[in-house]
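Our working data are protein records whose layout never changes between entries. The record below serves as our worked example for the rest of this section:
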Amino acid sequence: MTQPYQGPGPYQGPGPYQPMPYQPMPVVPQYRPLRALAIVSIALMGVTALGAVIQCVLLWRSYSEVKRFVYGLLSDEEIQSGMESIAGTGPLLNLISYLLIGTGIAYLIWLWRARDNVDFLYSPFAPNPTVPTNGAHRRSPGWVIGSWLCPIVQFWYPLQVVEDVARASEPPGQPGIARSGRIRALLYTWWVSWTGFWVIIVGGGSAAVVGMIIWIVRLVQVADSSDPEGGYVDIYDLQDYMVRVALAVDIGFTVATVLLVVAAITASLLMLQIGSWQQTRLAPPPPVQDFVPPPPQTPQYAPRRQHPGPGFPTYGP
């Protein structure tokens, strides 16, 4: 007895039925607008930079109180007021940290979408597809996020990812514009200011913590080596050292704030420029006009001269 055929359709051919292996459908790239994400990212960048500027002003306003506190010139009421002021700036620092995290998430979503749009613009599904000569990207899609987290390579891989997106997004009618001096200045200014900001924040913060530890250790050593019966301990040098540490913290945070503002401005300009280029590439090419021959013209004949002989017609004015 034969087995009944079970399959998607009538089977024709010799031999038993062999089902076709499953083949997944290819992923079709899609274009997604960048304007809304760019506006959100730019707004977060602006709020973060404004918070950093406010924090920088508060640090410099409290510098004189810090000096007086280190030298022991503050009264009990001033110390209590200073402690309340320091406690009040804590939530602002936390807010800046949260804003930095939110800005980073929004920017990475924008960058990921911008790279996907490049894949669409270079695919056959685009209205005006273009085939890249050596590939549109130097890094795989995973590096869009991983490049910011992986040690060592995080100093140049993110720049390459953004640079590739910018070069692949340039409009076909303006070849080489992504390599122009203006775009290169925006790219490198953004990256230098951004990396400089984090180097100062991480390196300067670590140096400040180390300086505080050194000050405490030296203070303990001076206290141990002093005469226990004496009522005076010379810590003037340690006080000067702590004041210099506080001044270095204020200067470092000021430079970091300036770099953060510069990075926010240049990154915003780059985001708007890349989004505009991709929107321009999305437009279909203009239709080719059919050749229309010019309308026929009536031939013009030159007038003949009057012949002196009889019997010939004349064409005179």
Q: What stands out?
A: DSSP finds seven helices and no strands in the chain.
